[in-house]
Amino acid sequence: MANSLVLAITIICFLVLTTGGSAFRQRPQLPQQEQQQAQYCRIQSLNPLESARRIQHEAGYTDVWDQTSDQIQCAGVAASRHLIQQGGLLLPSFNNAPLLAYVVRGRGIVGIINPGCAETFQSSEQTESGERFGSERFRDQHQKIHPCRKGDIVAFQAGVAHWVHNDGNEELELMVVHDTSNADNQLDQNLRRFFLAGSPQESEKQQTKYGSQQEEMFSGNLFQGFETEVLAESFKVDLETAARLQGQDDNRGFIVKVGKEFEMQRPSKYEDERRERSPRNNGFEETVCTMRIRENLDNPERADVYTAQGGRISTVNSHNLPILKQIQLSAERGVLYENAMAAPHWTLNAHNIIYILRGSGQIQVVGHSNRAVFNGEVRQGQLLVVPQNYAEVKQAGSEGLEWVSFKTNDRAVSSPLAGKTSVMQAMPEEVVMSAFRVSRAEAHKLKYNRQEVRIFPQSSTKREKGSRWSIV
Asked: Is the overall model pTM greater than 0.85, yes or no?
């Protein structure tokens, strides 16, 4: 009986460890994608990347990073930044890869069109009648729409159509990272965006390193490929209306101005926030149609790590935003005060795509060849890729440093080299003494001199002459 019980427990433990119960699981990839990433992850040096080109639209612009960059191809991602003017609309589209968008500034509304989900939002209008208060007439119904604001991380699944509207009183800026190496993308690592309206610039092409052919990053209107008669029959409309779907002679780009008629009924801000704070949103009762797609990382009160004199770090992963489990992505928002330092660490199971939001600072990145592949300054608007297992350390400048990091695993795990939760503090003193040939007293200092977690405040010691790094 005892042997049977031991055997049963052993089998259960084996099943838990092999079916994704571990926090360190690796995301699935296609063999072709693994080979492509391995080819471009032989990085000798890293550099902060500026956007490579700008695409102008009627109501904003899009900045695009060069997807042929070795470090971007190593991470298997594509990056872009949208600026939507007040009242602008990012036209409906879908992509061959899942993505995370960070709201750098402004506010707006996001529409996600999930196949098979009901149109649960309904609107009506008042009609003239003999009654005292008139009557209401059904006007429209559509799927759920989501508000977004500064500091939100918004998740989008591969192949799901979506649109974004700026209904605020300032410009709406979105930093977007697509995970082109995700298993949900069964094409190749080239980002493809399929638009359902307008006539985006067909000339926006990029030369890839996977072949000599030109690949379109932003495609034209999908309806343009169909015959007008087929569209008229499909939608049961006349030919003139069907031609409108194809966006002929539409030169507005894919961020367009909208008129005053662009109004839709939705729950109040209070109702929406109350619903999201409800304990019923625990990940088990959520469905594809009602699943939350956003989490705000700007609120200091939700910080996961906080040091009064140093700054804070907030993370979002599949534990607190379940949709991230489906798209295998997560994110981190960091704020360092003047000259504060984020502890040296490496990420066990993900690449980090770091976008600098504000301020400036120094970053060192060390690869497997035991030398720094990057040791320099970063500033607002730059992108830096830190490959999986490469160690990094950040230090803010005089104006502080803020960043958002997109991670290619829904449960990305970091391992600090120094500090209270570090690998150094977890080792027995005898191991530290033998490994580094130091005395017990020195080993004790290495283990316990730093008791902060992840963030080290500015030291009172002055900066060494000729050094870019403070003595901390």
From this structure: no
